[in-house]
Task: structure prediction
Amino acid sequence: MAARRSTADILDAAVHVREAARSAAAGASGLAPVLTALSEVMEYDHASLTRWDPLHRRHTTLAGSYPDDATAYIENRLHRDPVFPVLRSPERGGLWLRDVPGQLLAASPGFQDVLSPLGIEDGVAQCLFAADGRYVGMLNVSTRRPRRAPDPARAVVTLLTESLAAAVAPRADPPPPKAPAAAPGRPGGLSPRELQVLAELTTGRTNREIAERLYVTPRTVGTHIEHILAKLDLPNRAAAAARAVAWGIEVSD
Result:
């Protein structure tokens, strides 16, 4: 039998869980290391982290070690289990198996048909909520060994829920960069000089010829063309010339 961990050991292990969860939330790693680190907080036989899919109303396993039938139950049926409304309350912490009233366990297919045949005697189901209050997923941990009381791991698991929720929640795609607003009277936000160069492109002149007409260097003309293509999101000078024609921009001699 493994030696009982001290509170200091459990707190130290919790730091590793939080670091692994932050790494997963940042996309630098998966969630399997989170469960590995969690095993140092509390010994378990099976564990999983799942994400709630509100569109399809099911959980998706992101990392876990439950048998296939237990995983299928967690993913597809747990949210309809009589125990789930108790779990889903944001006001409560995790629901530990040995704290569930016997009458509720008797009515729970999850316990009667899934956990009990596995010999599970204790564990915790912890719903995870994002900072804005959205339900994002769940931590499930099961053990065949009844836990002793008092058990500091209980409090520590509750303290880890914020980090676990951030790791489980879908990462939002960054918003696309906003296109620069066009100045009044300037198509595409081009400067007056860029509009002059754009007009010259409709003539088919080279950079050197345009430079001679505008009394600038060919390098400066090239820089203006680069800016024009970037601002208008165009691939080449021919496309820029076509855009100028479409806008009615012409060379004024």
User: Anything to note?
Assistant: The CA atoms of residues 202 and 241 lie 5 Å apart. Residues 176-183 have pLDDT under 50 and may be disordered.
